[in-house]
Structure formats: structure tokens, C-alpha cells
Amino acid sequence: xxxxxxxxxxxxxxxxxxxxxxxxxxxxxxxxxxxxxxxxxxxxxxxxxxxxxxxxxxxxxxxxxxxxxxxxxxxxxxxxxxxxx
Length: 85
What we know:
By secondary structure, the chain is α+β, with helices and mostly antiparallel strands. The chain has a single domain, classed as Single alpha-helices involved in coiled-coils or other helix-helix interfaces (Up-down Bundle). The chain has 1 helix and 3 strands. A hairpin with a 4-residue loop joins strand 1 and strand 2.
């Protein structure tokens, strides 16, 4: 308990990057709405740094950017989903 390694899956990916929080309102992990700027944000952290941290006009654009980043950095496909272990 309290060990940061406990917060990663077997591939070293942060659990918070792949598991939807109860606070998530967009329905997509790593995508959120910023009321202050009236824009959608897409985020993805890989190896301890943000490789995607960008805002978009639409939710669809933010989702597409997040999914593309997952494919690029996690080599994630629909057939090969990352699981929390």
C-alpha cells in the first residue's frame, strides 16, 4: 500500500490511464471537458510523461486523438486490449 508500483499494470501502464474513474463524465478514459475554455481535453501519460495533452473543439476529435495515441504508444488494438492485472 502506498507503493507507486501498485498503480501500474503488468505492462507498466498507469492504471489511471486505462481504467475509467467514477468521476469520468465523457465515457472515455483520458478525455474530459473543460468548462473554463469550452473545449474537450485529451490526455495520455506514457513512461511518466504526457505524450498527449491537447484540447479540441469537439468530443469526437478528443476521443480520436486519445485512441490514436493509445495505438501509437501502447500498440493497442480492439483485438488486443490492455487489461488491469
